[in-house]
Design a protein that fits this description.
Elements (H helix, E strand, L loop, with lengths): L1 E6 L3 H12 L4 E7 L14 H7 L2 E4 L6 H10 L3 E4 L3 H5 L2 H7 L5 E2 L8 H8 L3 E10 L8 H5 L11 E7 H7 L5 H9 L7 E6 L6 E9 L3 E8 L1 E2 L2 E5 H15 L6
Parallel strand pairs: 1-2, 1-3, 3-4, 4-5, 6-8
Antiparallel strand pairs: 6-9, 7-8, 9-10, 11-12
Helix pairs in contact: 1-10, 2-3, 3-5, 8-9
Bound molecules: nicotinamide-adenine-dinucleotide.
């Protein structure tokens, strides 16, 4: 049984803890970490250092700016780390530098994105282009630094409007809570500088949707997902937590379709 620590018990962390309590073969919830009082499922609420020491696998479900504080002790202790806030890996490059010096394994689940199976498969033979177009209701971008810095009045957007066009690194810095999908695509594919990102605000949509377009010599991938906002946090999609749970199940299931 691997001892699992879940850091950040918000929309995603709560679903992951509930799934672990319901039962995932080979894994048991051993600790949580959150700054707020949370239902403890009979496990302790530990600081990051203690969680890194006492658990075998730590699942990160935190705000992106907190992620480096978790990664340092986990990587230094050589523990397995699952990261859902993938944009933190682009924004804080020291995480991957520390990882290179460690014996840890970092796992990035697909989160709210689909189509990564094809991207992973094509990477071996070369990807020429990778692009992601993300569309959400305007208020889904309410806390984005890019919106603040550019004085964008989200409430005045009455028709579908492109807010941003650039690469995955710039997108992660401007929209850290919104474009983990772009970071994940870039990490799976051709890197943050070459992965193109468009971000659209659409007052007519009720979905958070993401379309990837990936081109290689032998295959053209177009994959689109429309996620309903998670009732517990409209910036998150239910699919993100489910991808963590499916990844855990995939590690131990005897029959796996990838
Ligand atoms: N990869 C993807 O496709 C994808 C999809 C959706 C969300 N995300 C990312 O997943 C992360 C979690 O999302 P969520 O919707 O569960 O967020 P959330 O805001 O619902 O939960 C975050 C939790 O972290 C806790 N927290 C904050 N500071 C802390 C600290 N210093 N120590 C311990 N706990 C702390 C908060 O109290 C809260 O409970 C976010 O970064 C989000 O952007 C990724």
């Amino acid at each position: 049984m691997k001892k699992v620590g879940v850091a950040g018990i918000g929309a995603i962390g709560t679903s992951v803890c509930n799934a672990l309590i319901d039962g995932i073969t080979g894994y048991e919830l051993h600790a949580i970490s959150d700054v707020q009082d949370k239902p403890e499922w009979n496990v302790p609420n530990l600081n990051f250092q203690d969680m890194a020491q006492k658990c075998d696998l730590i699942i990160e479900c935190l705000p992106p700016d907190i992620v480096p504080k978790l990664c340092t002790p986990v990587l230094q202790q050589g523990k397995e780390l699952m990261i859902i806030s993938s944009c933190a890996l682009l924004m804080y490059p020291d995480i991957l530098k520390t990882h290179e010096l460690s014996t840890s394994r970092i796992i990035v689940p697909s989160g709210a994105l689909i189509g990564l199976d094809g991207v992973n498969a094509l990477k071996n033979i070369g990807i020429k282009k990778a692009k992601i177009v993300s569309t959400k209701p305007p208020m889904g971008f309410s806390t984005a630094p890019y919106v603040d810095e550019n004085d964008i009045d989200l409430s005045s957007i009455k028709e579908k409007t492109m807010l941003f066009s650039g690469n995955a690194l710039e997108a992660s810095k401007g929209f850290p809570a919104n474009v983990n999908v772009a970071a994940t695509l870039s990490l799976a594919g051709i890197g943050a500088m070459k992965t193109q990102v468009e971000i659209w605000a659409d007052p007519q949509t009720g979905f958070n949707s993401h379309e990837i377009q990936v081109e290689s010599e032998f295959s053209q991938i177009t994959a689109k997902v429309q996620n309903s906002p998670d009732p517990a946090n409209p910036k998150t999609s239910v699919l993100a937590a489910q991808s963590i749970i499916a990844t855990l199940r995939g590690f131990t299931n005897e029959f796996v379709v990838l």
